[in-house]
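Task 17 of the worksheet. Students: predict the tertiary structure of the chain below and write it out as structure tokens. Keep your answer in the requested format; marks are given for formatting as well as content.
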Amino acid sequence: MTRTALVLAGGGSTGNAWMIGVAAGLLHGGLDVTDSDLVIGTSAGATSAAQLAAVPPAELYEASLAPVPARVGLVHTQAAADNMARTAAIIAEAADAADMRRRMGAAAIALDPDGEKSRHWRGIVSRRLPETEWPERRFRITAVDARTGEPVVFDRDSGVDLVDAVAASCSSGFAYAIGDERYIDGGYRRNENADLAGGADRVLVMSPFGGRTRHPLAWETDLATQVAELRASGSTVETVVPGDGTERMLGATAMDLSLRAEAARAGFDQGRVLAESLAEWWR
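Model answer:
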């Protein structure tokens, strides 16, 4: 039986900090959601999931408050803006979600046909993870097969190590190489992938992008559709999204490292307020 499931969605660097802040705020208020029976992580949420499985939320929260020079954030923001413009054109040309994923995969492979960027990216991801072994609890990390466009879910029985799984899930630009296979960001399936928690009694979703989707609503990749699917299957669902005033931490600026401390504080304040109302439901 799966009583509780924690879903951590994509959201860039600020989204990672915000989700850590929410988890720390909830714990400060007496609710520990990191002990859930099932954890599903996508893109930035995959990093957050692996970090929260290894280090107490309060410790991660304190680390996220470290100041970062604004000039560092500008470099990452420009790269993210360029990637968003490139992928927006692919989304606009696609017939449906499956076609979009295939097109995204082909474009991502073309950006790095030999997989040379993967080694560098793996090193970056590895340094972000406090532990490189899969947690004992049920843990699912999402990605998409770059060659076929088919969604992929990694777990401890997949034969893929945790660092590679997280690196694949976070590879928003190029196609990440694991052996002879290539993968793109799990957010190209759905940004939250909350439907993978189907069967859980209670599902808590943290969505840094507020349930927004870059895809046409007819593709049904949005969070509202996922929540409806979960509720139809018998799960009760609660969602946490950033509050007012956090819009500037979305989109390309989600990769602005200098906004991490602000995002973490906003998440912490939300978590602390929500802890009491969520505690009875979660337990």
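Marker's comment: The chain is about 45% helix and 15% strand. The chain has a mean pLDDT of 94.
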